[in-house]
Amino acid sequence: MTAAGIILIIGMGLGGLGSFLFLHTQTLTATVTPPSSVVIATPSLQATPIPAAVPAKLLKPATYTVKSGDNLSFLAKKFCGRGTPWQVMVKANPHLKGREDYIDIGEVSNISQRCGIKR
To answer: Sign of dihedral through CA atoms 90, 63, 79, 65?
Structure first.
């Protein structure tokens, strides 16, 4: 090892030690005054009615009346979001099975409950 290497190692050691020894941290002092009176809140024990859950079968499904130019892919995209296959609409409307390529204008179709209605 050369003298320069030894001086470098000693300098690094002193620099690290110096920053450790002479590092001053700030101390903060807070003064807290005790409250003049203590108020303790007690929770209310009143019963809150919980609404009865309505079974999914009893909910009236959302419907849509078919217009000119509509098809199942368009309806699936419109109500269920982009990338939704048209089979979702057939599942919600079993009467369409076998005639997926033809839906009547004015026909009322159910919208799948899995879809959030977007208009």
So the answer is: positive
Residue among 82, 37, 84, 100 nearest 109 (CA): 100
d(CA 77, CA 85): 8
User: Which residues fall within 8 angstroms of residue 96, CB to CB, at 6 or more apart?
Assistant: 72, 89, 90, 103, 109
pLDDT in tens, 18-35: 666 566 555 666 677 776
CA distances from 40 to 15, 33, 37, 47 (A): 55, 18, 10, 21
Decide if pLDDT at 68 tops 70: yes
**Residue 41 token pair:** 């809140």
